TrEMBL record:
<dbReference type="GO" id="GO:0015420">
    <property type="term" value="F:ABC-type vitamin B12 transporter activity"/>
</dbReference>
<dbReference type="GO" id="GO:0009236">
    <property type="term" value="P:cobalamin biosynthetic process"/>
</dbReference>
<dbReference type="GO" id="GO:0005886">
    <property type="term" value="C:plasma membrane"/>
</dbReference>
<dbReference type="InterPro" id="IPR004485">
    <property type="entry name" value="Cobalamin_biosynth_CobD/CbiB"/>
</dbReference>
<comment type="pathway">
    <text>Cofactor biosynthesis; adenosylcobalamin biosynthesis.</text>
</comment>
<feature type="transmembrane region" description="Helical">
    <location>
        <begin position="56"/>
        <end position="76"/>
    </location>
</feature>
<dbReference type="Pfam" id="PF03186">
    <property type="entry name" value="CobD_Cbib"/>
</dbReference>
<keyword id="KW-1133">Transmembrane helix</keyword>
<comment type="similarity">
    <text>Belongs to the CobD/CbiB family.</text>
</comment>
<keyword id="KW-0472">Membrane</keyword>
<protein>
    <recommendedName>
        <fullName>Cobalamin biosynthesis protein CobD</fullName>
    </recommendedName>
</protein>
<feature type="transmembrane region" description="Helical">
    <location>
        <begin position="296"/>
        <end position="316"/>
    </location>
</feature>
<comment type="function">
    <text>Converts cobyric acid to cobinamide by the addition of aminopropanol on the F carboxylic group.</text>
</comment>
<dbReference type="GO" id="GO:0048472">
    <property type="term" value="F:threonine-phosphate decarboxylase activity"/>
</dbReference>
<keyword id="KW-0812">Transmembrane</keyword>
<keyword id="KW-1003">Cell membrane</keyword>
<keyword id="KW-0169">Cobalamin biosynthesis</keyword>
Length: 317
């Protein structure tokens, strides 16, 4: 069995594991440990002079440490049993994806919206976005949820699977380390602008290909859903993806907006500070709770098409 075949089998097993159990609290989560390492180093390095150099060193240390530990554990367990080593690698890979978690997050916002409980919907949304949610309308709550599901289809599903295809669980965990770095230090404010520069830029690099693959997979999957606007999805993506502040997030968000026939982007508030983003898509229809369910369908369709592509690769190797 070749290395790519092995990685595809690992990916399939990891997807099944994630769908079955997600991220149970009774199991240690590697990403939590990575976050603790980043926080520990942040308190000691993010001060004084040469913060940009320190930030580059942080990126290097965290990626190297993560990869080394994962490879060492897989190797040592492999000395005892190949199957135990494979199971460990499946667990590590499963911890980098969030298909079940992303669906649950969307449903937890959708349910109170359908019952008319705006307060609960806003609170549930606040768990998955950084924007202020206390005064959001129904349409704005839906927009925040749809944007989050679309964006996280890349870094919570397709990107780790893409890197797993290339380098197995160690590569997927290294990707997750970069993504965690970006979420913790990749801010454009006085405290992190220099220190988080390297992490933010490298996160852009490792997501560049997966983001575009995700948009293509979403579009292909949309052909199984008659209600989705295929031509509009194609047109909006190439017209509006570049309007997003991120070089990558605009691709899945624009494709989702186009397929649903809705408008995303616009004004958000973060800790009282207003942020105006370019609008993506066209408002053929007003954002409603049903669009959360439809964005979840697009998310599932995207990873299923990607998996079908991997199975095709498996059949020809």
């Amino acid at each position: 069995m070749g290395i790519f075949e092995y990685h595809i089998y690992l990916i399939m097993a990891a997807i099944v594991l994630d769908l079955l159990i997600g991220d149970p609290k009774y199991l240690p989560h590697p990403v939590v440990l990575i976050g603790k390492v980043i926080s520990f180093m942040d308190k000691r390095w993010n001060r004084g002079e040469n913060r940009q150099a320190k930030g580059f060193l942080l990126l290097t240390v965290v990626i190297t440490l993560t990869t080394t530990v994962i490879v060492a554990l897989i190797f040592l367990v492999g000395k005892i049993s190949f199957w135990a080593s494979a199971a460990l690698e499946v667990y590590f890979l499963s911890s980098t994806i969030a298909i079940r978690g992303l669906q649950q997050a969307g449903k937890q916002v959708e349910a109170p919206l359908l019952s008319g409980d705006m307060g609960s919907a806003r609170k549930k949304l606040s768990y998955i976005v950084g924007r202020d949610t206390e005064r959001l309308s129904e349409a704005e709550v839906v927009r925040g949820t749809v944007e989050t599901i679309a964006e996280n289809t890349v870094d919570g599903i397709i990107a780790p699977l893409f890197w797993a295809l290339i380098g197995g669980a160690p590569a997927a965990m290294a990707y997750r380390a970069v993504n965690t770095l970006d979420s913790m230090v990749g801010y454009k404010n006085q405290q992190y602008e220099k220190y988080g520069f390297a992490s933010a830029k490298f996160d852009d690099i490792v997501n560049w290909i997966p983001a575009r693959i995700t948009a293509v997979c979403m579009w292909l999957a949309s052909w199984f859903y008659p209600a989705f606007k295929k031509a509009n999805g194609f047109r909006v993506t190439f017209r509006d993806a570049g309007k997003h502040p991120s070089p990558n997030s605009g691709w899945p968000e624009a494709m989702t907006a186009g397929l649903l026939g809705v408008e995303l982007g616009g004004t958000n508030t973060y800790k009282g500070n207003v942020s105006n983003r370019s609008k993506i898509g066209q408002p053929f229809t007003e954002l409603k709770a049903k669009h959360i369910h439809q964005s979840i369908l697009i998310m599932h369709g995207g990873w299923l098409v990607f998996l079908l592509f991997l199975l095709f690769l498996l059949s020809v190797t």
